[in-house]
Amino acid sequence: KNQVEQSPQSLIILEGKNCTLQCNYTVSPFSNLRWYKQDTGRGPVSLTIMTFSENTKSNGRYTATLDADTKQSSLHITASQLSDSASYICVVRRGSQGNLIFGKGTKLSVKP
Amino acid sequence: GAGVSQSPSNKVTEKGKDVELRCDPISGHTALYWYRQSLGQGLEFLIYFQGNSAPDKSGLPSDRFSAERTGGSVSTLTIQRTQQEDSAVYLCASSPRDSGRADTQYFGPGTRLTVL
């Protein structure tokens, strides 16, 4: 079954700290993987997109990794800011023309 | 330029009523998607429009759900005879084209539907 599982479900960290969010998938065939940030009451916004051959990609303080062998991805946030408080959604494309499979997201709260 | 817009932002309706949700994609984007996001759940694909091709309706949960895209731009999602389980945030997204490799989707703010 094509699934995307994210962990933890929720996370609370102090401002300035780093954190890592996990995404495991069983989607096949794999095309690409995206991380989205969704602020409360807003639509998701793309952070990174990674294809099969890419192991790591950075976007400012966000760094995504992909291990296509183990079907795992992580999103690392460094020096967290209050504005990082949001849900982070992992999304995998099934095949080049297939649907996007969404994880349920990790809700991150950054406290002062 | 303007992003994806959706209206209304909130809709409260009574069980059994019909509702229409509107999506204005980014100008020039040929691909348009509708998703549903229920509380505590991931985004659920509903329907996909690409240019003049026949839409992919494989995600629509029942025949009470339908969508149109007029003139390749504005789209309307219609839910007939609403049920309480239809309560969710309905998100629309558009992308310049669906290349399969770099087709970032740009999401609207969503319409929060509450069925009483």
Present the secondary structure layout.
The complex is a heterodimer of chains A (112) and B (116).
Chain A lengths: L3 E4 L2 E5 L4 E7 L4 E9 L6 E7 L4 E4 L2 E6 L4 E6 L8 E9 L5 E3 L3 E6 L1
Parallel strand pairs in A: 2-11
Antiparallel strand pairs in A: 1-3, 3-8, 4-5, 4-9, 6-7, 7-8, 9-10, 9-11
Chain B lengths: L4 E3 L2 E4 L5 E6 L6 E7 L5 E8 L14 E5 L5 E5 L8 E8 L10 E2 L3 E5 L1
Parallel strand pairs in B: 2-10
Antiparallel strand pairs in B: 1-3, 3-7, 4-5, 4-8, 6-7, 8-9, 8-10
Mean pLDDT of chain A: 93
Distance between the termini of chain A: 41 Å
DSSP helical segment count of chain B:
0
Secondary structure: helix percent of chain A: under 10%
Largest interface: A-B, 24 and 25 residues
Number of strands of chain A: 11
User: What string gives the helices and strands of chain A in order?
Assistant: EEEEEEEEEEE
Order of helices and strands of chain B: EEEEEEEEEE
Which strand-content bin applies to the residues of chain B? over 45%
Class per helix and strand makeup of chain B: mainly beta
Number of strands of chain B: 10
Query: What is the oligomer described by this structure?
Result: heterodimer
Task: Report the uncertain regions of chain B.
Answer: none
The proportion of residues forming helix of chain B, as a percent range, comes to under 10%
* Overall geometric form of chain A: globular
Strand-pairing-aware structural class of chain A: mainly beta
Fraction of residues in β-strands of chain A: over 45%
Provide mean pLDDT of chain B, rounded. Answer: 89
Q: Tell me, what's the shape of chain B?
A: globular
Taking the alpha carbons of the first and last residues of chain B, their distance comes to 37 Å
